[in-house]
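In the design runs reported in the main text, the only information available to the sequence generator was the tokenized backbone. The following block is the verbatim input for one such run; it is reproduced so that readers can re-run the procedure and compare outputs position by position.
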């Protein structure tokens, strides 16, 4: 199945004239999913046709910021493509929600909560209800620093 991954600005009618969040739009089987990035751009700083940020000033700081945004876009698109390839190799049906969820669990540090919920569910499936209850009760919050050192996260 063909999957489309396209960087866009999340432009809403209620926030005209401001900076907009840069998102990755994932379309699979005519269903849309969105992955938010930490970047916000002005509409003139984003080229929709190229799917890239463009510098509107020659200031070194601005040019460096635009380069950082474009590097982030390229990395995130590659990671989403990698997730799609893995789902294709499994030879099972999958949805846009599966793609976005897998991306968030594997590659985006902002979604640590998603990772913990997935681990709790896994422990329940394995029959380790005590561990799942302890994690659900907030025990992981106290030891999160130590736990996160063991968690393989996406880093460049």
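Verbatim output:
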């Amino acid at each position: 199945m063909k999957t489309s991954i396209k960087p866009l600005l999340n432009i809403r009618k209620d926030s005209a004239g401001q900076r907009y969040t840069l998102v990755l739009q994932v379309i699979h089987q005519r269903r849309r999913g969105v992955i938010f990035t930490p970047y916000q751009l002005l509409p003139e700083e984003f080229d929709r046709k190229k799917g890239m940020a463009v510098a509107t000033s020659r200031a070194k700081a601005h040019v460096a910021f635009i380069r950082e945004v474009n590097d982030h876009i390229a990395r995130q698109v590659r990671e989403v493509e990698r997730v799609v390839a893995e789902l294709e190799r499994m030879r099972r049906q999958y949805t846009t929600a599966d793609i976005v969820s897998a991306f968030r669990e594997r590659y985006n540090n902002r979604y640590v909560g998603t990772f913990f919920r997935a681990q709790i569910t896994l422990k329940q499936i394995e029959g380790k209800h005590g561990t799942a209850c302890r994690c659900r009760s907030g025990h992981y919050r106290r030891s999160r620093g130590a736990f996160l050192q063991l968690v393989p996260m996406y880093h460049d």
